[in-house]
Amino acid sequence: MKALIIISILGVVAMMADVLRFKKLLVPIIVTGLFIALATVCMDWNTDIRYFNDMAYFDNYALAFTGAVIFITLLWMLIGQEYFQDSHTKGEHAALILFCLSGAIAMISFSDLTLFFIGLEILSISLYVLAASNKSDLRSNEAGLKYFLMGAFATGFLLFGIALIYGATATFNLQGIHDALAKGAISPLMVKTGVLLILVGLLFKVSAAPFHFWAPDVYEGSPTLVTMFMATVVKTAAFAAFYRLFSTCFISLSDTWIPVVAALSAITMLLGNIMAVFQTSFKRMLAYSSIAHAGYMMMAIAAMNEVSAGSIFLYAIAYSIGSLGAFACLHAMSVNGDESISGLNGLGKRQPKVAIFLSLIMFSLAGIPPVAGFFAKYYLFYGALIGGYTWLVIIAVMSSLIGVYYYFKVIFALFKTNPIAAEELPILLPKHYVLLILTAIISLGIGVSPAWLQSLIS
Amino acid sequence: MLTLVLIFFPLLAALGTLILPRDNAKMYSFISSLIQLGITAYAFILFLTQGTDALAANYEWVPALGISLQVGLDGISILLVALTNILIPLIILSSFRNNYSNPAAFYGLILLMQFALIGVFAALDGFLFYVFWELALIPIWFICLLWGGEERIRITLKFFIYTLAGSLLMLLGLIFVYLQTPAPHSFSIDALYQASLTAEMQGYIFWCFFLAFAIKIPVFPFHTWQPDTYTDAPAQGSMLLSGIMLKMGIYGIIRWMLPILPLGIAEWGNCVMILCAISIVYASVIAIYQKDFKRLIAYSSIAHVGLITAGVFSLSMQGLQGSVVQMLAHGINVVGLFFIADIIQRRMKTRQMDSLGGLANNSPLFSILFIIVLLGSVALPLTNGFVGEFLLLLGVYSYNAWLAAICGLTVILGAVYMFRAYQKVMLGEVHERSVEFTGLAKSEKIVLIIIAALIIVCGVYPKPILSITQPALEEIVLNLQGVN
Asked: Domain containing B111: what range?
């Protein structure tokens, strides 16, 4: 809870920066604030406190995910601070990112549907603006508008679903809803419709098929740094909320929604991976790969057993860290305006260390041992197999193989011998380099000792 | 504990190669591989005097999921570890005349490969085995990608996706077996051996495992990645792939399939035997028509490993012993052959056998060493190949006489393509370019002489190898007979 409060205050402070003229101090203040928030998360560990009449519930699950999103934001700040350079928009950009983060934390820690909805809206509305924040770029405007229209539509579904659930159970509280549903004797049609409508809203947020159409365009159009934030922090928070809501609230209705989630999981991973194969733009490829990863994580929600929470956590972190590394390279490239995979040609000759670390990141995203992505996938497969979803695991294995193809396209490009003209090659600045090395080392570290991360939530 | 040293020393050496000044990478990696050979010798003595217990180690890794760092060496694996650690210094030494760009990365990757290979042979935990199995793919893939020939991107992609597809199936099978182990589930080899699997389950898991191993070996019809990859890889890459890496597949069958899936093997074993027989004849016939010397070796390798796999699936003591002996023999011979191909290619800038000829005139020593390696490869008595192939054919014969007859063709056809190759390259009309062929350099002499010596020593006195493998294989055979 303290982390949520600190980050909300930080957001307000950032808005004041323009008025009170301390813009130069803004980045140090934010970084310090985030570190303090992270420290409070560690201090609150194992406390298990409910706040505000059981609106928010900070158990270890919520604390672990809160810590994860703050940590990812800190890593993001390494190159994300560039986003706060322009003196006109400095305060607004920083405030929006921080509000987005506080929305994410509210979504992670809710134990009441109202806080869930508020968190989701804080996160989404900040994101709509962030997506369109490059005002001079037509694609960015398009991305913002598209995201807003589709997002508003999905929010409508979600809200309608919440209303139906409230109508059936007369409570917003998760435990209350669970108890009311367990007792039975309430309008099943109303409840089931409500659950499915909420599912639609959430599937939209995690960009699962068939509600994924916004993702490639929005990812591609938004400024790269915003895309990076969207693909990591937002996705992690959305999955944390997804699991929390469905595991505590609707577990007794699992017959209704689990088949849907399992089927959509299979479709999402196949579709994401197959579409990614045909992309020539690195950014768009990462967008489709993020759809595919959402499909994998949905396996854990479909399996819904004792390893689900831990496997979602591990996967979200492995995927986010991997994406940060990939986006760091993409950001270095996008300075030249070239976002195609072939823009990486010959980088291996020019900056061999970058090539090695980016290859490691690609291995992690593709799920090849001994990097984090492999263990994350392993836990997911394992969970799904004990849940009895052998067919889903077989589809996941097949789509992982397709995934290898396009992640390796990046590695092949790195080691192509016919480089494009030297001045057109992307140059990784020290900040990109540091982020890339950090993410690669963290990926390797998680890969070598995955046990402790997963044991945080169990 | 010593086993862990054996596994992790190459990793440290690999990291060291990357850090130390790159001009010395060659020498540095060679010395570290010699140290590793010394450690292996010490482990071997320990094994002979104190038995398997001295080399076992077990540490926790992911206790919640029953995954542990359990390693150990028995009569089969210690021989393969010894093979790896003898071949790696030879492979490094064989590259001394090649000037690869970025040597630090090249030698670092070879040592990394050594790390993964030893891990595969020493792992006694299913999960650990899988991790090392996959890990072995990465360095060799990079070696082929960075130092390979013209078409390396297409070829390495095919190679990687092919092998990864097999591996992922194996992972599925492994998790499935793990879930059938007595509670609490564990990946430890003892627990996996006790998994209660019905005959039907074993049938499915059999294919999950077998596909992974068959792709790596490779057995017809899963071999299509192999000739391209072997031909296109740099010489040292081909040596690693054929000399050691394909043994992972055969070793995997002996260690992980025979004891876990006896019923699956009883059901599908004959199917595999037929595939092996097809492999042998098909690859041998294609080898006869090859014009590229390296490609010829690649196809001959398919024929040889086909026979080894058939020997394993004959499930007889002779067959299994033959397979272990022949794994060692094939490892040594094929490295020798690929090195000879590399020596010729480096000097003549071609591997096309039609444009070579009469090389024997220029270098008598080279032609003698070549013929020794070649005789080992065609299994002449008193060479290492003979012992292995004889036992293998005996094993297959005890399974089915007709199959043995077909598999026996490998010896005849092998002699045909190998001697024809020798005739075209070394004898006959002196090709105009052959005049430039210079004698062997010092490092080349050392490598070839050691290989030739190993071929003869193992052929004349194979008894120690047989007696070391005896107890471990007996256990496996008894277990199989008990079930059937």
From this structure: 1-260
Same domain, B240 and B365: no
Q: Inter-chain contact B105–A378, Cβ cutoff 8 Å?
A: no
| A→B interface, C-beta within 8 Å | 352, 363, 368-370, 374, 378, 381-382, 385-386, 393-394, 397, 400-401, 404-405, 408, 411-412, 415-416, 449-451, 454-455, 458
B227 plus B99 within the same structural domain: yes
Looking at the partner chain, which of A369, A374, A451 has a beta carbon nearest the beta carbon of B64? A451
ipTM score assigned to the predicted complex: 0.86
The number of distinct structural domains making up chain B is 2
pTM: 0.90
Pick from B130, B153, B164: CB nearest A404: B164
Q: Span B366-386, mean pLDDT?
A: 87
Is residue B328 scored above 80 in pLDDT? yes
Work out the mean pLDDT of chain A and round it to a whole number.
Answer: 88
Same-domain check for residues B297 and B435:
yes
Q: Work out whether the CA dihedral A53, A59, A65, A67 comes out positive or negative.
A: positive
Report the 10 Å Cβ neighbour count for B38.
Answer: 11
Per-residue pLDDT tens for B414-445?
888 888 888 888 887 777 776 677 777 888 88
* Structure token digits, residue A455: 């044991």
> Averaged over B268-277, what is the pLDDT?
90
Evaluate the omega torsion of the peptide bond into residue B471 and state whether it is cis, within 30 degrees of 0.
no
Q: How many distinct helices (H) and strands (E) make up chain A?
A: 20, 2
